[in-house]
Amino acid sequence: MEKTFAIIKPDGVERNLSGKILERVESQGFKIVAMKRTRLSKVQAENFYDVHKSQPFFDSMTRSMSSGPVVLLVFEKENAIADWRKLMGATNPADAEAGTIRKDFAESIERNSVHGSDSTATAVFEISYFFAQSEILS
Ligand code: GDP
What we know:
By secondary structure, this protein is α+β, with helices and mostly antiparallel strands. It has helices spanning 10-14, 18-27, 42-48, 58-65, 80-88, 101-105, 120-130; strands at 2-8, 31-38, 70-77, 114-116. The chain has seven helices and four strands, in the order βααβααβααβα. Bound molecules: guanosine-5'-diphosphate (GDP). Guanosine-5'-diphosphate is lined by residues 52, 57, 60-61, 91, 109-110, 112, 115, 118.
């Protein structure tokens, strides 16, 4: 079983989409093995997205990520990392396939409702950035 890390971003929480998003997650065979609702500080968002620090959108994106409550999640499933990215859809909702979360719910490339790890190494880093082992219950 593989684990991946996910976030329902502030724009998704703000628009009361958490339930709709998690309904899709569970119906696609993912098990939610950790979940917490919190608000990221600007510094936490900057450190989390450190790989993007030289991007022109970095300040705006990390401001958006720290603008309101988020739901932090760990999902478990065979092939969880790739399957969650598929269910999320492309980063820019304009490019996302029909039936994906970003196509159906995202407002823009920045307000794109969800995050998902993009590799095994990223998933390990991202899960441990937010969760203690004792908070993850398979
Ligand atoms: P992801 O893995 O699909 O979330 O995409 P990336 O890791 O490439 O980017 C991280 C996040 O930065 C994305 O989910 C977007 O919210 C944001 N982002 C990426 N590209 C842009 C951009 O060109 N403009 C803005 N404003 N935000 C962006």
